[in-house]
Write a structure and sequence with these properties.
The protein is α+β, with helices and mostly antiparallel strands and 151 residues long. Helices cover 58% and strands 13% of the residues. The radius of gyration is 21 Å and the shape is extended.
Length: 151
């Protein structure tokens, strides 16, 4: 079973033919609307359903605030990094857990009746993880670079 159109959907209906395991989740997706700008095309549903830019901007602002607290010596640099590492860890755990549930749904037809949309929250927590991982990579850039230096 392929759920390639899983993300830009509004309605999900279950269609069963002959009451066999050939039931597929047919999804009626919103039509993709492209906005023409001079140099790039932007898909409107991308901004509507998944909030990457607002999440990224909020994380940058929160990171800047905690970094400011380090500079004015209200918190230590170690506590600052530990705080962001914990947030990154929990974002990864939630994104990974929801990814496993999506995998179970797609491969083994285990459909849980949850009060939220798994894919939406999987993507949101993935965006949080990715945004914080960018800072994490910059923290350890010297370590990464030293692994490629010739000795």
């Amino acid at each position: 079973m392929s759920l390639e159109n899983d993300f830009p959907t509004q309605n999900v209906t279950k269609i069963c033919k002959d009451n066999t395991l050939n039931c597929l989740l047919a999804q009626t997706s919103t039509p993709t609307v492209w906005t023409q700008t001079p140099f790039l095309q932007i898909q409107k549903w991308w901004f509507k359903e998944y909030y990457f830019l607002p999440i990224f901007i909020c994380i940058v602002l929160l990171y800047s605030f905690t970094y400011f607290l380090v500079k004015v010596k209200k918190i230590s640099l170690m506590n600052h990094r530990m705080f962001w590492n914990w947030i990154m860890l929990w974002a990864f755990i939630w994104a990974m857990s929801m990814g496993v549930l999506l995998l179970l749904r797609m491969n083994y037809w285990i459909i849980l009746n949850l009060p939220f949309t798994l894919l939406f929250w999987h993507v949101i927590f993935g965006e949080v993880f990715f945004s914080i991982a960018i800072f994490h990579i910059f923290w350890h850039l010297r370590v990464f670079a030293s692994t490629f230096k010739k000795k």
